[in-house]
Amino acid sequence: MTNIDQLSIDTIRVLAADMVQAANSGHPGAPMGCAPMAHVLFTQFINANPKNSEWFNRDRFVLSNGHACALQYVLLHLLGYKVSMDDLKNFRQLNSVTPGHPEKTHTDGIEVTTGPLGQGIANAVGMAVAERHLAATFNQPEFPIIDNTVFAIVGDGCLQEGVASEASSLAGHLELGNLVVLYDSNGIQIDGSTNLGFTEDVLKRYESYGWHTLEVADGDNDLVGLTRAIETAKAVKNKPSIIKITTTIGYGAAKAGSAGVHGAPLGADSLAAVKKLFGFNADQKFVVPEDVYKYYGERAAQGAQAEKVWNELLAKYAQAHPKLHAELSRRLEGRLPEGWEDVLPRYSPSDKALATRKLSETALSALAAKIPELMGGSADLTGSNLTRWKDAVDFQPESTELGNYAGRYLRFGVREHGMAAIGNGMAAYGGVIPFTSTFLNFISYAAGASRLSALSKLRVLYIMTHDSIGLGEDGPTHQPIETMAMLRATPNYLNFRPADGNEVSAAYISALQHSDRPSVLSLTRQNLPQLEGSSIEQALKGGYSLHTYGSGSKLDLLIAGTGSETSIAVDAAKLLAEQGLTVKVVSMPCLELFSAQSDEYRHSVLTPGVPSISVEALSTFGWHKYVHCPIGIDTFGASGPYLELYELFGLTPEAIAKKALKIVDYYKSTPVPTLALEF
């Protein structure tokens, strides 16, 4: 270890401790323990340009144990990213760029949002998938245009989470040799020693997954060992690598090696002692020696030079392979192909009734042919989700003889949570648009990751089928009731429940147009008719007046429906019209898009002063914002043929019409309230 290495490592330790002490909040232990491995990684291996954090061929770094973010912020500051000393001083303060856990949308140089443990390593797997796919798609002899490594630091807690196991298992199968994970094995978690509940042999587990495993016994001091281990890991091209690095949490502090240093400031006395131990002035705060700035500045300059060399290679690539270069440039600029919307089908009422999952298959197949960056798969439900187009090639290592890395269809296996987190990593990497698929009910398995899609503003398409009691005999274990309410309550989501083919096409258009929002497409197993009055253009508004039944000059009732219940609402309206009522049917495939429309438009659809009901074979939670009487299911479902279930739960045209008459009669003598529609 050279003097500058030791000084740099100690600077990282002290600066991270200063940040936590100033905030009176945070986690000093992991940054202090991980400082040596992070220093080696960032000064010797990671190729990135701090002056252009979006350089596409940069190596990616993920801090999976996001509570250790003081470590990452210090490194970003030293390297010259847009993280100033004042930003470090404002750690965990309102509106700072150094929040309590890393957030992709807040801080220059942060690749993914981490904090919920295990998500980061799964994101790293997704990034590695994207890199391998893009390399296979665009690289040519003498032109390794996409050629970078994904690095991650993980902790004991990350590797206890199921999502990490799911993603790591798939990474081993996929032979992702571009992924290197540094495992900070400090033996401590919040409750105390990991011996309380985590005593497995992690490296043997990862060896069984198909990973290359290494170990550094003294992660506190052995920089040579760390360097050799990372070099060895990078040289292995047909397996992801994990390096177990034994460290001391809170190295140098009075409570080092204990849970007491995990999630609380060191305290003034302990921090002063740490500074003295490492040769710093105990009375000074937030100090970086000039030699450390210079050393990290030299590494940053190497990164800038690496980008310069890459840009020169890219220019030659443009001359040698103009079509590939044009396609790569389009993707990196975030532009979708010209005319992509035009490939989506349009439907009329005379067209055949089909399940919306089948309509989705048609739409997805057309889009896959037009948008080559569209890439994804299913959690072992391909034949049910209908997400694989006819000429799709699986993303597989060639050694399996099942596909290749240029393939775009992923076999995620029964790993819903891992699938969603991998999708986040793919979206964060760039150059691809990921989709994932399972039954709607099982997005609940993936909620930890799907929530981060929204928080991170990532365009991930969740193609969810079997979306209600309409799936029938599989029963309440598979029938989503509360699921859509959860998704609608999640900020920055677009949740679509299309009623027919036009609305399916609109859902795909909107999902792809919104590059900063994830979308859920909730699709039926049962056939639905193509509706009179539906259109792609109308559906893009999230809610619209579908058709009015009856001949009166004044509306007696408004019925809002979504998905499979919209056609039921239509049939109920026809029954009511036969009894002399005038009823408007409103289709509301996406409440979030509808709520974003102008006051005038929303008034024109949900007519004030008219009694209103909604019909949806899901929880009624949230519907009181839009209608006076929501009709739905606020219990669990049941097992049986789906038509019998609809009758059981009162979701037939006859049952709805009967209830609607009571509502109309009630409001004949009671003023119709104007709902709080945020007008």
What does this structure look like?
By secondary structure, this protein is α/β, with parallel strands linked by helices. It has 24 helices and 20 strands. The strands form 5 sheets. Strands 10-9-11-12-14-13 form a 6-stranded parallel sheet, with helices on both faces. Strand 13 (494-496), helix 18 (501-513) and strand 14 (519-522) form a beta-alpha-beta unit. Helix 1 (3-23) packs across helix 2 (29-44), helix 5 crosses helix 15 and helix 15 packs parallel to helix 16 (447-455). The longest helix is centred in the middle third of the chain and has 31 residues, at 290-320. The protein is elongated. The model has no long low-confidence stretch (mean pLDDT 97).
Précis, in short:
By secondary structure, the chain is of the alpha/beta class.
